[in-house]
Design brief:
This protein is mainly alpha-helical and 235 residues long. It contains eight helices and three strands.
């Protein structure tokens, strides 16, 4: 498949730069062929998850673009701009991690197809490591499980989830302003924000490129998983 942007046939919107629309629509079409009409309930779960990833990825790209533009004025900006930077960072990170988790849930549903294990409520609340184990354990999706396990172990994924956990559960990132030294004229935040403040490594530059590496990971994670899902389903 050749990566391309454009309007998704499944969602009827342009899904933006973080989505390979060819892959997205191929997963939708193949899952429909595999699951419909005999397993409509399973398809509804799968479709909600996979299309949810597409929507979250579009939202991620939009908020990321807004975040980058908020640094056009450098570090000496009004308090309102600082607020917008914090708010937009949160929106970007929250949507990005939701997209990654939506893709994982879709992979899990493909692995357990044609039926979700009983009791349904428990089976639909599996933690990440257990979902990956189920994906690994199914012959149809074994390679997909290997990919997902390796992907979530990457450094950029850890950085994204470090930010998500701190912003969601603990608060606002503390900024450091430097005059002189290697970070002169820049702001930094802790790359290990979930650690005690006495252990913070304040060397992560808080600027327009802050999220570039995690978002590159996110696109690779979602597109890669989508391609392997296609391989696991008949055309």
């Amino acid at each position: 498949m050749t990566s391309r942007r454009g309007i998704s046939a499944a969602l009827a919107v342009d899904l933006g730069p973080l989505v390979d629309v060819t892959v997205h629509d191929a997963v939708t079409m193949r899952s429909s062929k595999l699951m419909m009409p005999d397993h409509r309930d399973h398809y509804l779960l799968f479709g909600s998850s996979w299309n949810g990833a597409g929507v979250r990825l579009k939202s991620t790209a939009r908020h990321a673009s807004d975040f980058r533009m908020l640094f056009d004025g450098g570090t000496d900006v009004p308090s309102d701009t600082h607020f917008e930077q914090d708010a937009t960072l949160f929106d970007t990170v929250a949507n990005a991690t939701a997209a990654a988790e939506n893709v994982l849930f879709a992979a899990y549903l493909l692995a357990v197809f044609p039926s979700v294990p009983s009791p349904f409520r428990k089976a639909l609340k599996q933690p990440r490591d257990q979902m990956i184990e189920r994906v690994l354990g199914a012959s149809r999706t074994h390679r997909l499980g290997e990919f997902l396990g390796d992907s979530f172990d990457k450094k950029a994924a850890s950085m994204l989830y470090e930010l998500r956990d701190f912003l969601l559960h603990r608060g606002r990132l503390s900024r450091n302003h430097f005059v002189g030294g290697p970070f002169s004229g820049k702001m930094t935040v802790a790359r290990n924000a979930k650690s005690h403040s006495s252990e913070w490594e304040n060397d992560l530059v808080f600027g327009e490129t802050l999220l570039d590496e995690p978002l590159d990971w996110l696109k690779e994670h979602c597109d890669g998983a989508g391609r392997l899902m296609c391989n696991a389903m008949p055309e």
